[in-house]
Structure formats: structure tokens, C-alpha cells
Amino acid sequence: MAVSRSVSRSVKQQIADELRDQVLNGTVAEGDKLPSEAELIERYGVARNTVRDALSLLVGEGLIEARRPHGYFVRDRRRMQYRPQSDLRGLPITAPHDTFLTEQEQAGREPSQTIEVSIVDPPALVKERLQLKADELAVVRRRLRYLDGELIYSNDSYYPLDIVQTTPIMSPHDLTPGANHTLAEAGHTQVRALDEITVRMPTPDEAKRLDLSPGTPVAEHIITGYDQDDRPVRCVLNVLPGNRHVIIYERDGLPSPEGE
Amino acid sequence: MAVSRSVSRSVKQQIADELRDQVLNGTVAEGDKLPSEAELIERYGVARNTVRDALSLLVGEGLIEARRPHGYFVRDRRRMQYRPQSDLRGLPITAPHDTFLTEQEQAGREPSQTIEVSIVDPPALVKERLQLKADELAVVRRRLRYLDGELIYSNDSYYPLDIVQTTPIMSPHDLTPGANHTLAEAGHTQVRALDEITVRMPTPDEAKRLDLSPGTPVAEHIITGYDQDDRPVRCVLNVLPGNRHVIIYERDGLPSPEGE
DNA sequence: CAGTGGTCTAGACCACACC
DNA sequence: GTGTGGTCTAGACCACTGG
Lengths: 260, 260
What we know:
homodimer; alpha+beta; six-stranded antiparallel β-sheet; two-stranded antiparallel ribbon; 10 strands; DNA-binding
């Protein structure tokens, strides 16, 4: 019903508009099932591909997803806070001192993670940031972090091999004293960091690893940490599914350089 | 040629894979034109919709875009730096003191912007952050920023009406002394800020306003500024096309709270 | 005018999860 | 089995831009 041909707006757009309205105003709530393709074909009197085109527009907007063979569902729009500052200040990641684990436990959720440690020839992106020569290697701790069994984000921390060679960073367990502590003991106290955030669509690999449904962008968050001698000692590569997070920074001071 | 049926990977996936490889390894460079649909139909011996399905996968990954009626082209993957800290420290946006304009001019590019000022009942999102009551209004300065004639991002700054009512913030021009200066003169010196960054697909409105091609996510960057009495005095809503920017924060100190 | 991608139709067969 | 969405075919007509 109610699709008109020969209007400026295409049929699939009109169908998508109507469904989008219903999603946004709550007629169909988060988690609800949309009508099946067959129902929409009947309702609007159009071909199946037209209905599918309309639905794929909404999928591309990140509003709905297909769960085969159950139907299309409205996606969850709630987001959790992601705070790079406390992640770094509390340091990245270890048992009692892992900010991810402790913060989430306090929030009454069940955090967990998998850790996998290896020595690798790191990607160019990491090599540049760690100022490694062509033949220098790095240790990477690859983590997948979960909350209540649900994958939240991936976190790969790279360290120059020569710095961490004999430290607990090499062991595939939570770092009980904390990675920053370990680095400091090795003579490299991290005193500053550079955060780079890029927004993009995931690669097919990432989509698979993070179990992302189509229409889900990611934030790639790269942290490069420097020690007291301005040497890069850590490069962390986080990939966050865009639909699950709000990235938060708090800033103060704002010294007004030119008297503004 | 070379698509095989009855393999686990679908035909459209195989075609997409082959084209993706060519894009990523540079066989077809940024800005280059891909083969037309007709050529791909012939090359692979499949139906048109199959070719279109393959291409729309790559469009969804943000790798290529259709420029009708010219063909499909490899998208530009260069990004410019976006630094919320200097944007705020230098203050947001005015003629000689506008960090956007001055920084970009120094980089040898031609910045420009449109400004539109109005008094509005702000969106709920802004109202919460400015702690406005239901009937309180705000002044919004809506900007679209360009570089060399190309749209870079949108920037909407909201101010509580009662604070800026009689100030130059109300005039639709560049703020020569700077918005922070004006706020300070009105007795509200901004001393801290909260940044929130969310990653999502654009709404159809945004896609149109920012001229985003399909497969382009956005970063929504919300800055809330507080004065010496911890009253929110500004709420800035930036929408950045994901494919054009790297968001950069610099942090130092990292005081290691619990001795980590 | 020719060639491009955009829209739409009307079919077909498939894999998968649930009953 | 039944119903779901996923893949694929083989056509058609359209709007737009360039030569």
C-alpha cells in the first residue's frame, strides 16, 4: 500500500523511508523483528528485489540486520563508554590492574579476554610508529575483550622486542603488576602518548573476526606511547565496532595561548 | 574468467575479492576507473545483477564509488589531521583567531566556511549537555567548512541564549576576537571540556548535506565546554566524513595512579 | 547519440534453523 | 517439512553526461 510510481522518490526509497520512520519513532523497537520479505512484497505490491533493495538501504545505515533464517531485526543502539585516558593512565590491561577488567567488574558486568602472545615482524603501520628498522621484530599481545560473553573490541599491543625480551610481557597471561610497571622496571617509563583515531568500514577479515554485521563501521584507535627519552615503547592497535562505543576524552586547562 | 561455481565462496564474493585485490595492491590506483559493468559481465560470464552485487560489496567497504554515468572509481584514501585539542585551545573558529582557518592557511590550502546563525530550540542531545530546561533556547552557529572548495566537515556550535544574548556570537560573521574571548568577557571562561566521539553510518540527511557517497561512515564529535563554575557554556556538534580524517589527541603526564 | 549506472520485474534454486 | 533470507539469471526501461 501507498507506494506511488512516477514520484521523484524511487519505490525502494519510499519503502525504506516508511520502515526507517517506524524504527526511529519506536513503532518497531530495538530488537524487534521487521515484516518478512514476503510480507513486504505483498504489502507494497512490488518485486522481491525491490523489497530487498529497500531493506539493504537500512542495513547500510546500520539500523537493521538480517538474521538468517529468522528475519530482519532492529539493531541495538546502546553504546558503552570507551575511555582511552583511563585505559592508559590505569595502564593497559592486566589482572588486578587491568583497567578494562576492573572497570567493567565494577559496573556489574562480566569481563573476559583471550590473550595470545607472539614475536612478529609487525605491520608497516606499527613499524613506523615504533621506529623499528626493517629487520627489527616486536612482541605483540593480541587480545579479544568480551563483556558478558559478547565481543567488545580487539586490542593488539606491540612492544619493541629488545625492550621486553626478558619481561613478563612475553608470557600469555594477564600482567599482574601491569604493563606500564613492567616497562618502567625495564627503564622505560611512559610519559606521553599519541592517539590516532580513524573511522572506516571494516576489512572482510575484521568483519569476520569481530563478527560485524554489514553496515557496521569501525574506529581504529592507535596509541603510541613514549618514554622519558622520547623513545616509542609501545604501539597499541584497537579496533572498535562503531555501533557499540562512545569514545570519551576529558580535557582541562585550555590555557588560551593568545589571550583568546 | 576464472569464477568457479560450487565452491564455498559465492560468485559475487570471488569477483569482489579479485577486484579488491587489484585496488589494494595498486593494480588500479586511487582515482582510477574500474571496468564497466558491461565489461565485467563479459569477463566473468555472469548476469548483471551478480556483477552489481560484487561491486556493491566494495562500495560498502568504502573502497570504490559509482560516478554516474562515468563508471566506478577507486576512492581517495588520504586523510587530513583533525585535532580537537588545538581546535579548542586556539578556540573555536573566528577570523584571525579561528584555528581552522589559520592552521589550514599555513598548510597552503584554501580554507573557507559558510556561517548561519539562528536561535533555536536545540535537539535533546544538546539540551541535556547544556543543562537547558524544556523551554530554554540556544543560539546556534552552523558552519560548513571547506578546503580548496571541498567540503570537509560540518560544525554546529550551540550556546545558551541567556549567556550570549548581547554578544557578537549572535552575528553571522567570523568572530574576530574569538568565541572563547567573547564568552570570557561575558563572565564565562571555559576551563574544561568533555569530548564524545561516536562512529556510525550517516543519516540520509547528513549524507545529502555532506555529499557522502555510500559506504562512508561518519564520526560525530560532541564537545561540551564548562566554565569556572562548572556550568556548561558551549556544546559543539561536529560531523566528520570518516574517509577524510584522522582524529588526533596528544596526552602527557600519565601519572600512574596506583603505582602501576 | 552512445554508454554509463540506477531501478524494477519475475522468475529459480539454495542453505539454514526450527518444528 | 516450512519459512527465512542469500544467490543468481535474463530481461526491461530510465536519467544523466559526454562527445
